[in-house]
């Protein structure tokens, strides 16, 4: 049995049909009409559990899960010791710096973000001194209230930025969902993990497994 940590939310919705293309079927209603968090699928050889996206790499690093699926943004922020096996090419978006259009940059600007590690590294690599302020959510509010001049956040369509009078200033990196593995599990369960990765890889390329 492989234990797989899956992220709650939009990634999971796109993941279910990708697994189906890879030949792995499980009832999607289990994830939409139930508060249950752990699902055992002996016919597929899986135990699946749902976690917050930011927690998935932690479960994988500590071996509670053999595998996990999580966005590249979370991998960069969490910096956990895991193997990244496959780009699943779902839930595409980007990490970006945003702020008010035409605003004069401060000498030492404050940057609000849910990704402090990524933000600090990004500005340090560019020789820019900033003060990073961690926020749990609604980071678009920071420039509107004067808490920060800029934000670092996930951008998909840019609609949320536009609705709040903000613009994308700099693009940091592209983001998609990734398949990750626990380092010990990868050695002990290598055949099962590689089989899953290969089948999902074919599904990503558009090949449907029988």
From TrEMBL:
Its EC number is 2.4.2.17. It is found in: Cytoplasm. GO terms for biological process: L-histidine biosynthetic process. SUPFAM superfamilies: Periplasmic binding protein-like II (SSF53850). Gene3D superfamilies: Periplasmic binding protein-like II (3.40.190.10). Heteromultimer composed of HisG and HisZ subunits. Lacks the C-terminal regulatory region which is replaced by HisZ. This is ATP phosphoribosyltransferase. It comes from Laceyella tengchongensis.
């Amino acid at each position: 049995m492989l234990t797989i940590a899956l992220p709650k939310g939009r990634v999971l919705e796109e993941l279910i049909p990708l697994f189906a293309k890879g030949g792995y079927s499980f009832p999607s209603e289990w994830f939409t009409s139930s508060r249950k968090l752990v699902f055992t699928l002996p016919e597929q050889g899986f135990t699946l559990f749902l976690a917050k996206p930011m927690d998935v790499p932690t479960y994988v690093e500590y071996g509670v899960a053999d595998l996990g699926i999580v966005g590249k943004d979370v991998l960069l922020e969490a910096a956990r010791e895991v193997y990244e096996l496959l780009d699943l090419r779902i839930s595409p978006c980007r990490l970006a710096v945003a702020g008010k259009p035409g605003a004069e940059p401060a000498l030492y600007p404050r940057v609000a973000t849910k990704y402090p590690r990524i933000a600090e590294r990004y500005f340090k690599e560019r020789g820019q001194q900033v003060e990073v302020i961690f926020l749990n959510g609604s980071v678009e509010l920071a420039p509107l209230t004067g808490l920060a001049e800029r934000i670092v956040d996930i951008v998909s369509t840019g609609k949320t930025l536009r609705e709040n009078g903000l613009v994308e200033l700099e693009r940091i990196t592209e983001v998609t969902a990734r398949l990750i593995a626990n380092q010990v599990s990868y050695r002990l369960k290598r055949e099962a993990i590689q089989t899953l990765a290969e089948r999902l890889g074919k599904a990503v390329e558009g090949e449907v497994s029988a």
